[in-house]
C-alpha cells in the first residue's frame, strides 16, 4: 500500500498505541454513579477522534481539512471517528445546519453510522453525537468543582471582571467573590440554575490563578446565565456551559483519545488538562483523559474560510446562496464540480503541520484536474457559437447525409468505450476558431485573402476533431457587419481513423458540434471570487473579483443529454475537450433540450492577477 508521510499527529497516536495508553481506562476517586457518565460507547476502538462542528452555518474547505484529518487518522489506525455537534450555544444553532453538515460529511465518503461492533451483532449505534445531550453531566461536573473548592460564582459586573482579568504581562486581581465558601457557592449556583438571577448577573468561574501568565488560566468562566430556547433542550436550562468548559468534557465522555484542533486553541490546552484532571480526580471521568493536539488551520489564497465572512457574502448578495459554485463551502465546491476524492487529496497535499501558511489557489484546481483527468468523460462543446457551412457537402455525400463519427469516452480508459455523433452540412464552431484577417501565427480557420506581401493567400485548412480536414473558402456577413456564416469545403478522404487521414497535413484541430443535432446549453464560467490573495483584511466588497462569473450560450454534442439523464441524481464532472472540466448544475431544473453547466476549472491555470 501507499506509504503515508509521517506527521506529528501520527507520532502521537503511534506512541499511545505502543504504550497502550488508552487500553485500560479506569475510574479515579470514588465512582458514585460514574459508570453512567460515558456517552454509551460500546465498541472497543483503540483510538477515537471526533469532528466537532458548531451547527451555526455550512461547512467550508477548512472544515473539510478537519474532517479529513480526523476521519482518516481514525480509519488508518482502525479506530472510530464521531461526528459531534458542538451545540452548547443556544442562540445561533439550527436544524437546517445540523442536516446539511451531516449530508456533507456523508458526501465526502465518511459514514455517520456505526457498523456493528465485531462479534456483537445488534450493537450498532448512531455515529452522531450532540454535546447538548451532556448538559446534565456538565452541570453535575460544575457542582463537583464548586464542592471541591475549584469553582466559584462571581457577581462582579462584566466591566470589573474584564478590568480585573489583567493583561498580557499584567497579573489579574482576585474577585471579591473569590473567597466565598463552597457551601455559599453551591447555593448560589443552584439559584443560577433555577432562574433566580437575571441574565448576566453572575457567572460560574474556575478557581485557578489570577496571576497566571496564561490569561486563559485566570479563573475562566464555566457557566453563564442566558434565557434562550435551545434547539435540543428547549427551555430546560437558563444557564449554558462555556465552550472551553464543555469541549473537554464532551471529548472525555465520548472516550476520545486524541482531540485534534487548530492552533488558536493552543493556549486553551492547559485549561483542558486542568479541568479533566480535576474531574478524573473526583471520579467523574475515566482516566487517562483525552489529550488535545493542535495543527495549523488551512488557508487558501483568494479564499475565505470563516463562517462569519461567508455568511456576509450570502446576506449582502455577493453570491447566490451558500452553495453558489464560487463559495468555498463544501456544498458550493460540490456544485462547482469538485469530487470528494479531489477535496480529500487536496487536504492531503496541503499537509498537517504545526506552522501555518497559505496554500496557493492553483493547487486546489490543479488537484481537481489531476483527479478528473483519468476518470472524466469527454464531450465536445461550443461555448460561443458561429455557424459554419460545408458548401460541397451535398455534392460529395448527397443532401441530408449525416456522417457517423466516434470518439473515446476517455482517452486514458479504453474500457469506458466510445461516443457516437454525426457530422452534417452545417456545424457550430467556436468564434475564436475563425479570423477573417489572421493574426501572425494563427493556425485555425481564415478565408482566402491578400497577404502582407501583396500576394494572394489560400484559405486555411484545419481538422474538425474526429471528422474531416476542411478548407475555409469565405465568410458571409449580416447587415451590421457581424459574421453570419463561415464557409468551407470538405477535403474528401481525410476522415479521422481512415487510411487517408494523414494525406493532408494541417497545423490546427478545432472542436465542433452538428448544427442539425447539437443540444443548446448554458455555460457558467467561474473565476476566483476574490481578486486579492488574502481576502478578509479589508472591506469584502472592495476585494471581490468583479468578473468571477460569466455566462455563455452555446451547444453540446448530440447524445450528451441522454447520457447525463442516465447517470442519475449525482452529476458527474466531465471534460469539454479543450475547454475545461464542467458539471451539470444540480440546481437547474432538468430539461433535455436546455442543459446548464458549471465550469469547475479550465484545463490549464490561466490566472492573471
Ligand atoms: P469558522 O471560523 O469558520 O466559524 P470554526 O472553527 O468556528 O470555523 P467550528 O464549527 O467550530 O467552526 O469548526 C469545527 C472544526 O473545524 C473545528 O475543530 C475547527 O478547528 C475546524 N476548522 C475550522 N476551520 C478550519 C480550517 N480553516 N482549517 C482546519 N480546520 C478548521
Ligand atoms: Mg468554533
Ligand atoms: Mg467560528
From TrEMBL:
This is Glutamine--tRNA ligase. Keywords: Aminoacyl-tRNA synthetase, ATP-binding, Cytoplasm, Ligase, Nucleotide-binding, Protein biosynthesis. Pfam families: tRNA-synt_1c, tRNA-synt_1c_C, tRNA-synt_1c_C2. It comes from Lampropedia aestuarii. The keyword Cytoplasm applies. Residues 47-356 form the Glutamyl/glutaminyl-tRNA synthetase class Ib catalytic domain. Residues 509-585 form the tRNA synthetases class I (E and Q) anti-codon binding domain. Residues 160-180 are annotated as: Disordered. Residues 376-488 form the Glutamyl/glutaminyl-tRNA synthetase class Ib anti-codon binding domain. It catalyses: tRNA(Gln) + L-glutamine + ATP = L-glutaminyl-tRNA(Gln) + AMP + diphosphate. GO terms for cellular component: cytosol. The keyword Aminoacyl-tRNA synthetase applies. SUPFAM superfamilies: Nucleotidylyl transferase (SSF52374), Ribosomal protein L25-like (SSF50715). Belongs to the class-I aminoacyl-tRNA synthetase family. One of its GO terms (molecular function) is ATP binding. Its EC number is 6.1.1.18. GO terms for biological process: glutaminyl-tRNA aminoacylation.
Amino acid at each position: 500500500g501507499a506509504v503515508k508521510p509521517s506527521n506529528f499527529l501520527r507520532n502521537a497516536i503511534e506512541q499511545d498505541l505502543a504504550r497502550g495508553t488508552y487500553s485500560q481506562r479506569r475510574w479515579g476517586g470514588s465512582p458514585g454513579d460514574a459508570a453512567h457518565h460515558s456517552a454509551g460507547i460500546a465498541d472497543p476502538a483503540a483510538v477515537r477522534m471526533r469532528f466537532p462542528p458548531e451547527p451555526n452555518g455550512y461547512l467550508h474547505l477548512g472544515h473539510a481539512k478537519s474532517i479529513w484529518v480526523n476521519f482518516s487518522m481514525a480509519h488508518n489506525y482502525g479506530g472510530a471517528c464521531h461526528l459531534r455537534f458542538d451545540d452548547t450555544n443556544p442562540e445561533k444553532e439550527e436544524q437546517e445546519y445540523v442536516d446539511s453538515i451531516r449530508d456533507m460529511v456523508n458526501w465526502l465518503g465518511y459514514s455517520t453510522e456505526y457498523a456493528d461492533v465485531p462479534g456483537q451483532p445488534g450493537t450498532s449505534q448512531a455515529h452522531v453525537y450532540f454535546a447538548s445531550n451532556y448538559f446534565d453531566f456538565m452541570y453535575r461536573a460544575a457542582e463537583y468543582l464548586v464542592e471541591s473548592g475549584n469553582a466559584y460564582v462571581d457577581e462582579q459586573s462584566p466591566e470589573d471582571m474584564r478590568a480585573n482579568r489583567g493583561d498580557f504581562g499584567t497579573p489579574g486581581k482576585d474577585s471579591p467573590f473569590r473567597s466565598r465558601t463552597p457551601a455559599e457557592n453551591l447555593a448560589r449556583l443552584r439559584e443560577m440554575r433555577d432562574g433566580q438571577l437575571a441574565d448576566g448577573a453572575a457567572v460560574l468561574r474556575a478557581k485557578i490563578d489570577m496571576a497566571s501568565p496564561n490569561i486563559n488560566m485566570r479563573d475562566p468562566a464555566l457557566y453563564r446565565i442566558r434565557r434562550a430556547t435551545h434547539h435540543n433542550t428547549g427551555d430546560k436550562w437558563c444557564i449554558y456551559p462555556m465552550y472551553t468548559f464543555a469541549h473537554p468534557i464532551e471529548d472525555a465522555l465520548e472516550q476520545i483519545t486524541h482531540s485534534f484542533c487548530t492552533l488558536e486553541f493552543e493556549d486553551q490546552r492547559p485549561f483542558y488538562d486542568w479541568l479533566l484532571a480535576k474531574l478524573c480526580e473526583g471520579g467523574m471521568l475515566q482516566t487517562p483523559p483525552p489529550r488535545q493536539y493542535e495543527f495549523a488551520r488551512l488557508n487558501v489564497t483568494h479564499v475565505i474560510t470563516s463562517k462569519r465572512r461567508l455568511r456576509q457574502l450570502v446576506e449582502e448578495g455577493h453570491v447566490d446562496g451558500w452553495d453558489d459554485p464560487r463559495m468555498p463551502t463544501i456544498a458550493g465546491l460540490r456544485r462547482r464540480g469538485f469530487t470528494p476524492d479531489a477535496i480529500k487529496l487536496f487536504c492531503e497535499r496541503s499537509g498537517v503541520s504545526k506552522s501555518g501558511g497559505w496554500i496557493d489557489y492553483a493547487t486546489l484546481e490543479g488537484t481537481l484536474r489531476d483527479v478528473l483527468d483519468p476518470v472524466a468523460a469527454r464531450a465536445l462543446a461550443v461555448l460561443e457559437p458561429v455557424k459554419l457551412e460545408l458548401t460541397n457537402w451535398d455534392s460529395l455525400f448527397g443532401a441530408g447525409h449525416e456522417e457517423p463519427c466516434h470518439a473515446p469516452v476517455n482517452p486514458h480508459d479504453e474500457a469506458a468505450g466510445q461516443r457516437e455523433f454525426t457530422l452534417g452540412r452545417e456545424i457550430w464552431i467556436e468564434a475564436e476558431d475563425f479570423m477573417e484577417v489572421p493574426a501572425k501565427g494563427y493556425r485555425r480557420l481564415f478565408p482566402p485573402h491578400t497577404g502582407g506581401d501583396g500576394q494572394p493567400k489560400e484559405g486555411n485548412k484545419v481538422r474538425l476533431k474526429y471528422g474531416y480536414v476542411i478548407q475555409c473558402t469565405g465568410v458571409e456577413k449580416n447587415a451590421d457587419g457581424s459574421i453570419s456564416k463561415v464557409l468551407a469545403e470538405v477535403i474528401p478522404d481525410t476522415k479521422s481513423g481512415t487510411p487517408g487521414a494523414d494525406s493532408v497535413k494541417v497545423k490546427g484541430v478545432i472542436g465542433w458540434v452538428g448544427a442539425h443535432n447539437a443540444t443548446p446549453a448554458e455555460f457558467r464560467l467561474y473565476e476566483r471570487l476574490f481578486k486579492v490573495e488574502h481576502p478578509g483584511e479589508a472591506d469584502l466588497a472592495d476585494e471581490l473579483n468583479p468578473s468571477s462569473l460569466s455566462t455563455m450560450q452555446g451547444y453540446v454534442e448530440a447524445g450528451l443529454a441522454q447520457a447525463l439523464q442516465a447517470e442519475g441524481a449525482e452529476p458527474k464532472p466531465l471534460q469539454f475537450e479543450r475547454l475545461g472540466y464542467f458539471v451539470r448544475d444540480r440546481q437547474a431544473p432538468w430539461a433535455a433540450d436546455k442543459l446548464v453547466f458549471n465550469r469547475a476549472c479550465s484545463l490549464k491555470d490561466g490566472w492573471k492577477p
